Amino acid sequence: MGHDFELGESYAKKLDSEDKLAEFRDYFYIPEGSIYFNGNSLGLLPKNAEKSFNRILSEWKTLAVKGWLEAEKPWFFFAERLGELSAPLVGADPTEVVATATTTVNIHSLISTFYKPEGNKTKILADELNFPTDIYALQSQIKLKGLEPDEHLILVKSDDGRFLAENKIVEFMGDDINLVFLPSVLFRSGQLLDIPFLTQEAHKRGITIGFDCSHSVGVVPHSFDEWDIDFAVWCSYKHLNSGPGSSAFLYINKRHFNLEPALTGWFGYVKSKQFDMNLDFEHAKTAGGWQISSPGILGSAPMEGALEVTLEAGIENIREKSLKMTSYLIYLVETLLADEPYNFTIGTPKEEHRRGGHVALEHSQAYTIHEELMKKSVVHDFRPPNVIRLTPTALYNSFLEIWEVISYLKEIMNEIRI
């Protein structure tokens, strides 16, 4: 998608006047006096999420234990309801998604189910740029199988420390690979991997493949069923705006429903028989069968309202605006801050189809710049050694805020040089 951007504050205001998602800013609580560009770490509170949380809090207050079956949205089915709400965002059947546990717990649950080393096929293929918790979980799962991670966990290396080459990943899909587990978006650089291509190549070789989509769901449309991926996990507190530590999601392709979950618990039991208290486990033939313990109802409560906002805005509309915002940000950096004496570098793919929802700015003085930006109430984050991550969020940020942040960066660099 080409953009003919212009410089100037008035042009940023013009972009805002044409923004069909502008009204959604009023759906959120914006920290006063700040520019919040950190939705890739923690999304802001939607007013709808506050309402769904308060409703459930009130139900606990007035119904107590009866809330499990008599609440407006019975708690007993709440995890499945949230899965049904989120399914359109990932292109899945409602039965294939459930809200449960946390991202890392779900990684353990699904890897332990799908990773079945036998014969020569004993290795897991991942990458060196992945978020550390994913690698820790993979190492742990390999050890639980009595194997050594140093030998059985293969990490594809990056040529430049920023990006991964999909063709290079495919080259490592040898006869000894049992399972592939990759991120959808690299958490530092914001590179969006080619999920359908990687899935197709893995399946050509008889390899199971799954993805951690924590940095993409809610900002990038997905088509899990069409792409035929085997499984996925993602959190809800970044681009889905469900609150700190809110429950996570997992996806199981329905062709795997007959697999026996490796980590079992009573909430994964067939729903209609759950209170039979039978000691012989019979898992639900849905994604819900991979639930382990009772859902955290209060931890999940904001998710309903937050998902409603995302669905009302439309994931395709969110993606369109997000790409326009990150493209505008990249344009301003390259036009105003790339040359001497500023020397900023874009560490995110320029091609829109290869980019997630944030932009990585690279600079040798990144930590100092980060501290100065925070003093100006620009909320963002720093990733060592030299990355400032900026996330203009389609639902609550404006193009004018992007212009203001670039102006702040220029001011900061001028002050540093004095």
Detailed description of the structure:
The chain is of the alpha/beta class and 418 residues long. The chain has two domains: 9-39 and 314-417, Aspartate Aminotransferase, domain 1; 51-312, 3-Layer(aba) Sandwich (Aspartate Aminotransferase, domain 2), CATH 3.40.640.10. 39% of the residues lie in helices and 12% in strands. It is built from 14 helices and 13 strands. It has helices at 9-17, 47-63, 67-70, 78-90, 103-114, 132-144, 149-152, 166-171, 195-204, 224-227, 297-313, 315-337, 366-375, 399-417; strands at residues 35-36, 97-99, 123-127, 153-156, 177-183, 208-212, 231-234, 249-252, 345-346, 359-362, 378-379, 381-383, 387-390. The protein has a seven-stranded mixed sheet with strand order 2-8-7-6-5-3-4, sandwiched between helices. Helix 10 (224-227) links the parallel strand 6 and strand 7. Helix 2 runs antiparallel to helix 11, helix 5 (103-114) runs parallel beside helix 6 (132-144) and helix 12 (315-337) runs parallel beside helix 14. The relative contact order is 0.18.
